[in-house]
Amino acid sequence: MAFWKPGAIAPGSTVDRDTEAETDTAIAVHADKEFRYLTIKQQRERLPVFKLRREMLYLMEKYQTVIIVGQTGSGKTTQIPQYFDEAGWTANGKQIACTQPRRIAATSIAERVSEEMNCKLGHDVGYLIRFEDQTSQRTRIKYMTDGMLFRETMIDPLLSRYSVIMIDEAHERSLYTDILIGVIKKIQKKRPDLRVVISSATLDAEAFFHFFNHNRTRDPVHDTAAILSLQGRMHPVDILYTETPVDDYVEKTVQTVFDIHTKVRTEINIPWD
C-alpha cells in the first residue's frame, strides 16, 4: 500500500487518478446497465457462484459443514439457498434457514429471492425478524436475523425443522452469531443429518474449518468440514480515501453514496427506472 507524503497530491484525488480507473468505472456502469435488462434466469447464471453450483452440492452431500468464502456480489446469499432447495433439501416439510446480522438485510434479500423464484413473499420464501413474521406453513427458504434463530433454539433445541442452516456474514462476529455457532456445533453431534454453511466475504476459513471438523484423526477422509472459495465479483471495487479527516464516518459514507448517485445520474445519463 502506497503512503501519502506531505506536499503530494492527496490520495483519492481525481487529479492523480489514471484513465484506466475511469475506464473501469465506465465499463462497470455499462455492464450494470446491460445486466438489468437480462431475464432473472440469465442474471442468476452470470453470478460467480453459479460456476461452482455442482461442487457446492457435492460438498453438502459429503460434509456436515461447508465454509464458503466469496467476494461481495458473488451471489452467495441469494443463490445458495435456492440451489439447496432445487436439490431437494426442503423435501418432507424441511426448511432452509439463512441468518443475517441485520433486519433490513433479511427483509430485502427475502424479497429478491421471492422475485427470482416467482412466488409471493411469505409463501415459498419468507423472512422472520423481531415483531414481524412473514412466513407460512409452506415456506421452504427462511431469511432471519441471527437473534431470531437463537430464540428458536429455546423452543426447539435441535432445530428439527431445518435441514440446512446458513450463517451469513459470519465475519461480523455479532453476539448472537458467536453463540449460534457454538450451539449449532453441539446440535450437529445429535443431528448428523443437519448441514451447516458458514459464508462471508472476508473470513478466517481455517479457524472455522478446525472448529467444525469433528475428525480426530489425521486422515482427511474422515473430515466433516470443507472449504469452498468463490472467485470473481460482479463489479470492480476501488478503494478511495478522504482528503481530510471526518467527524462521523457513517454520515460521511451516506453523503458520499448520494454524491456518487447524483454524479453518475447527471454525467453518464443512465435511464433510471
Can you walk through the features of this model?
The protein is of the alpha/beta class and 273 residues long. It has a domain at 39-229: Rossmann fold, CATH 3.40.50.300. The chain has 9 helices and 8 strands. It has helices at residues 19-36, 40-46, 53-62, 76-86, 103-116, 146-155, 175-190, 205-212, 249-267; strands spanning 65-70, 95-100, 125-129, 132-134, 141-145, 162-167, 195-200, 225-230. It has an 8-stranded mixed sheet with strand order 4-3-5-2-6-7-1-8, with helices on both faces. Helix 4 (76-86) crosses helix 5 (103-116) and helix 6 (146-155) crosses helix 7. The protein is globular, with a radius of gyration of 21 Å. It starts with 18 loop residues before the first helix and ends in a 6-residue tail after the last helix. Its EC number is 3.6.4.13. It comes from Syncephalastrum racemosum (Filamentous fungus). Keywords: ATP-binding, Helicase, Hydrolase, Nucleotide-binding. It is an enzyme of class 3 (hydrolase).
